[in-house]
Amino acid sequence: MTTVPTWELRARFARSLSEMYGREVPAYTTLVEVSAQVNRDVISRDGTAAERFGSIERVTAERHGAIRVGTPQELAQVARVFGGLGMHPVGFYDLREAAASAVPVVSTAFRPVDADELARNPFRVFTSVLTTADPRFFDDDLRAEVEAFLAGRVLFGEDLLELADRAEHEGGLPARVADRFLGLAVGAFELSAAPVDRAWYERLERVSSVAADIGGVSSTHINHLTPRVLDIDELYRRMVARGVTMIDAIQGPPDWEGPDVLLRQTSFRALAETRAMREPDGSVVPGALRVRFGEVEARGIALTPAGRARYDDLLRRIDALLAAEPSRARADVARELWRESWPATERGLLAEGLAYFTFEVAAGHPPGRPPVESPVALLDGGWVTATPIVYEDFLPRSAAGIFQSNLSGEGTRHRSRRGADHDAAWMSAAIGRAVHDPFSLYAAQQARSLDRVAVAFVSAGR
Ligand code: OOG
Ligand code: NI
């Protein structure tokens, strides 16, 4: 029997999830259609330059999802499911202080880490876990009640987890077993028809609607699925023209003439969905919850720690300028500052050590061996080509914006209490697997390419 390799399991999982989510949230299908149109138009406008950050096949198939779980145990189980799909935890995001409203979660993203695997299918899932141990959100009594509720539910059955482990150990699954694994995996993220206990849900909602979405129900569900688009400003205009109410801005770096860096995202709230509600008297009545939404993103070059520090500093300066002159449009202020402080070319980013690239020996390079070593000197001398490494991760501030646009009320956060210490090490221990540092992954990819270049020049005896 033929084996379905890991990357194909992941690609099929992303496709089935997309079909399921399209049935559940029809506005998602519209978003995917408009994104595909924009991508086709950009390709015919810009030709191969449009594929600088990934082939059109990759970009068209590319999605990220978001899910939320309640406990470290559930997180460890999710990690097993994603492990079977070749997706590993990368990065730590602390959203507890990042938004104006209360968001009691910390997060990581599960994604492929090897360049080849990313090129085959880059599916990633932003995964958050409820911080029940954080006294700023939960007092001792509520914490005990939430934890007891969560301990009593099963999100992922034993058979699903065993198949995931097998897929991980064997690097794939036999075809028929693969169908079963993917069916169970997609099913685990489907919106449940089970009645929601209204009183319990509303109690958690007073802490945060994110707490209610996670701990107020007996299953998990995909919260959103995000396609990738090559021109997000054009996408935004087309969605508005179709009458979709978008959030009032595109988050992340501004629209400008230089190279795209990191990640730009925008979103809209999906419609309320019918959910059965169990009332305190035991009766079940139709109700509605509005918890999901549509999001779309454009991706650019991955930044080095120095590049990221400059980016974060620019955001602070934009905030300060806007605080001083609130009547100005954020996008204009951002573009102006950007032009002053950000290199306008990929070469500029490389020369200032702000972004990551992969290097290859250039066709028609000068004879002999390069007399220089620095990547930018190799590039300038015509020895190598430099291709940007795409940013594969998330931005805490944009993530907080997404959560924020999804919240129905402020919630409550006791700022006077000390928060629970949750960091990347806590996350690794909870998951039972090391959480990768995104910068190290990009740096290693760049370093490997430089090694290959060095070996090529030496072994050619040049
Ligand atoms: C996740 C929000 C973060 C993104 O794209 O930054 C996110 C959530 O709402 O659960 O998906
Ligand atoms: Ni998202």
Automatic annotation (TrEMBL):
InterPro entries: HGLS, YdcJ_bac-like. Gene3D superfamilies: Uncharacterised protein PF07063, DUF1338. Keywords: Dioxygenase, Iron, Oxidoreductase. One of its GO terms (molecular function) is dioxygenase activity. It is an enzyme of class 1 (oxidoreductase). Its cofactor is Fe(2+). Pfam families: HGLS (PF07063). Its EC number is 1.13.11.93. SMART domains: DUF1338. Belongs to the 2-oxoadipate dioxygenase/decarboxylase family. This is 2-oxoadipate dioxygenase/decarboxylase. It comes from Pseudonocardia oroxyli.
